[in-house]
Write a structure and sequence with these properties.
Layout lengths: L4 E7 L6 H13 L5 E5 L2 H10 L6 E7 L1 E3 L2 E4 L2 E4 L4
Parallel strand pairs: 1-2, 1-3
Antiparallel strand pairs: 4-5, 5-6
Length: 85
């Protein structure tokens, strides 16, 4: 049985922090913590990547490293939360 993908998105739009999250994400990927990672500058870019990273394969985990709070992520000034879904 396929264990499902473990994916990481980092906020590349965060001033000053995007490069740090991207570097930490690369290290985590190399350590085998994630199957794939991507730094994004928009919600649309992140969602499109998630949908196309490996079509037909289940996703077990998506982590987002960036700004926001529980249940709400921010990429740049755009929010993704329960209301936007």
């Amino acid at each position: 049985m396929d264990r499902g993908l473990h994916l990481l998105l980092t906020d590349g739009a965060a001033p000053g922090l995007g490069p740090a999250w991207a570097a930490a994400g690369r290290l985590a990927r190399e350590a085998g913590r994630f199957d794939a990672r991507r730094s994004v500058t928009s919600l649309e870019e992140g969602l499109a990547w998630l949908a196309g990273v490996s079509p037909g394969r289940p996703i077990s985990e998506v982590q987002f490293w960036g700004h926001g709070k529980w249940g709400r992520i921010l990429v740049g000034r755009r929010a993704l939360d329960e209301r936007s879904l």
